[in-house]
Amino acid sequence: MTEFRPSTSEDESQIIGLMARAFSVGLDAPFLNPALVRWKYWAVCQQWPEPRSWVGEQDGRIVAHACLWPVTLQTGEHGGTMIDWAADPQSSAPGVPLFRHLRRSYDFIYSAGGTPIAEALYPRLGFAVIGEVHTWARPLRPWRAFRDRSRNVPLRRIARNICSALAPPRIAPLGFSAVPISVLGGASLVEQPRPLCERDLSFIEFLAGCPISKCLAFHIRFKQRNVGWFALAIGRAQARIAGVWLEDPSADNWRTAFLLAQSAALDHTDASEILARCAGRESCLGAEKAGMKLYKRRPIYLWSANGSAQPLPIEYQLCDTDSAFLNIDHPGFETDSDSLR
User: Fold this and answer.
1) What domains are defined for the chain?
2) CB 205 within 8 A of CB 231
């Protein structure tokens, strides 16, 4: 019989071994970095004090694992997306019972894409496709591909990316600015972001503790008034717009936010490209107007306790999953490939 419980730090080696077997990778796979595992599962996050990592255990041996990456909607509903969902290949599908155990405690669980095995299971588990999430990118310093032999980028794509990086728009409309929010070094978080949203600065402070990426947060100001904020996750060569939250989420304001994020990445990081993810009509239009190109589309799957198949009132951004930091120091550069259009 399988017993389910929150994991503890004492389970670290068993969980890493389980995931290595389940995903057919070595123990040195970047996403199994022990420091990253400890932070993902057990580091304190003030916005979500409940356990994030759960295991299924048979006779003292861990045979299934899932981490619920959390989000709380403005309506008060609790849920998230499952990451590192794995089952021992030698056991009889304990991953499904673990999911059924987890869903008793949450209002919703969703996924933006997933492994082929997971996507095949979703319909059986009561998930419905509720939309599409889009990944956007823009080159920041594309000429670096010349000296990075490991990327093996064709010259035509390097030329295309240089044109894309130099083409307007680059500057946010007059009156808008991005002002850094200090979330590192134990600084007090005096000013909470406005408007109120499903993420607050305590979550960004948690992201800042990620051992493989740096996190920078910025107020979006218009004529000395805060009208939104955004956060960047930074790796060695890639900047990711972890999230954007706006007082007025119009397409023009999304465009402004993406432009400010691009400028911040150029000013504060050494990144070669910048990524964003969103799902709404206005946000996607804003990304396109800000000079970003669409590179990926993925279905959004939702399980809801009330049986709803309506989209959640969130943008499905990078910080809503582990995509904000996953493999950020070993990225596959989106702009090295052809865009969808």
Assistant:
1) 3-106 (3.40.630.30), 134-297+320-336 (3.40.630)
2) no
